[in-house]
């Protein structure tokens, strides 16, 4: 198990740029749209993505991953040290942080039973996008295949680099609606396949105290006054519901197979201290912070809403507008919402287990 390395923000920014150039990834302003000749999924593309979704169940590894997000705040990057044991889960450390809580453990399979690729449910990915097989390439010294996801208008939505030897996902890029602007990249800069990896002395496990309610109980939640929308803008679909057993917070998980967002709801009023340092957006009463991940927080009708996800800023704004917004005449802090929500989240990606340290 490796010791976290100290990397300052400036060095990290340089390293991210160097990595993106060095491994042939296009920078945001120069990413080129990909043509597509057919709207049918390529069988090879589907089979490789299915293999990528299953690979962590039987492949153990140790690697360094860089996650970068581009938005109104500029770029935000994080370097993660990941030790993954197929039989247990992933120990994830935020490189460069001296904080004792910059390390966490995500148990394999705790995020749901449906196959997923980098957090995006594979079933929704296949339902939403056209999947194209781009054959063979290499990255970080490993032979890989390239798979692309195209929107209905044939703009490029995502690229996946999948390791030919193991099926592990090596890199993923997500693009804005124009198919050119890169909005998020997840890149392994080094990867070692381990035999019989076992994690001892596990760090605190996240999430905790959260029960899956499934989506079968959505109608019942509506009758109790909760906002339960099955679909959101940008083809985001509700696929799971959790409830924190201690605080009673509900978590509604949405995805289109690429982008993921969770909506937390708790009865009460927003504590202004919870959104100190947040900015504003077009919708009145909404507090926002862009990063890895991005947050949008507001209260309406006696419910505090918190959106946490990796959506592009324009899509995040559209999603926020889709929910009730009743600006309270008087704000009385009765419950503290914000950072604590990230801690109880049943997160969609291993990286997000450290979301409160990244955002």
TrEMBL record:
<dbReference type="Pfam" id="PF03888">
    <property type="entry name" value="MucB_RseB"/>
</dbReference>
<dbReference type="InterPro" id="IPR033434">
    <property type="entry name" value="MucB/RseB_N"/>
</dbReference>
<protein>
    <submittedName>
        <fullName>Sigma-E factor negative regulatory protein RseB</fullName>
    </submittedName>
</protein>
<feature type="domain" description="MucB/RseB N-terminal">
    <location>
        <begin position="102"/>
        <end position="195"/>
    </location>
</feature>
<keyword id="KW-0732">Signal</keyword>
<feature type="signal peptide">
    <location>
        <begin position="1"/>
        <end position="31"/>
    </location>
</feature>
<dbReference type="InterPro" id="IPR038484">
    <property type="entry name" value="MucB/RseB_C_sf"/>
</dbReference>
């Amino acid at each position: 198990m490796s010791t976290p390395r100290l990397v300052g923000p400036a060095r990290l920014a340089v390293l991210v740029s160097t990595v993106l150039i060095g491994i042939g990834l296009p920078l945001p302003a120069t990413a080129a749209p990909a043509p597509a000749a057919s709207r049918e999924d390529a069988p090879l593309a589907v089979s490789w993505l299915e293999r990528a979704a299953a690979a962590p169940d039987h492949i153990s590894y140790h690697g360094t991953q860089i996650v970068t997000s581009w938005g109104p705040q500029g770029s935000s990057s994080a370097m993660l040290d990941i030790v993954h044991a197929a039989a247990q889960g992933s120990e994830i450390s935020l490189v460069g942080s001296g904080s004792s809580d910059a390390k966490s453990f995500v148990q394999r399979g705790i995020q749901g039973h449906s196959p997923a690729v980098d957090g995006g449910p594979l079933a929704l990915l296949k339902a939403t996008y056209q999947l194209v097989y781009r054959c063979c390439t290499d990255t970080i010294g490993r032979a890989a295949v390239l798979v692309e996801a195209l929107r209905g208008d044939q703009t490029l939505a995502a690229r996946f680099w999948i390791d030919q030897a193991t099926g592990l996902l090596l890199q993923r890029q997500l693009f804005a609606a124009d198919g050119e602007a890169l909005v998020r990249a997840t890149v392994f800069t080094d990867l070692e396949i381990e035999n019989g990896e076992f994690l001892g002395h596990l760090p605190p496990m996240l999430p905790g105290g959260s029960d899956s309610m499934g989506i079968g109980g959505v109608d019942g939640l509506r009758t109790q006054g909760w906002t339960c929308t099955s679909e959101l803008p940008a083809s985001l679909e509700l696929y799971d519901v959790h409830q924190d057993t201690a605080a009673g917070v509900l978590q509604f998980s949405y995805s289109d197979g690429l982008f993921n967002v969770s909506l937390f709801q708790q009865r009460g009023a927003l504590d202004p201290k919870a959104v100190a340092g947040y900015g504003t957006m077009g919708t009145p009463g909404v507090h926002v912070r862009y990063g890895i991940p991005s947050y949008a927080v507001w209260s309406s009708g006696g419910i505090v809403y918190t959106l946490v996800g990796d959506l592009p800023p324009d899509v995040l704004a559209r999603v926020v507008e889709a929910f009730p917004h009743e600006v309270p005449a008087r704000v009385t802090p009765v419950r503290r919402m914000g950072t604590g929500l990230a801690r109880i989240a049943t997160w969609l990606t291993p990286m997000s287990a450290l979301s409160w340290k990244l955002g």
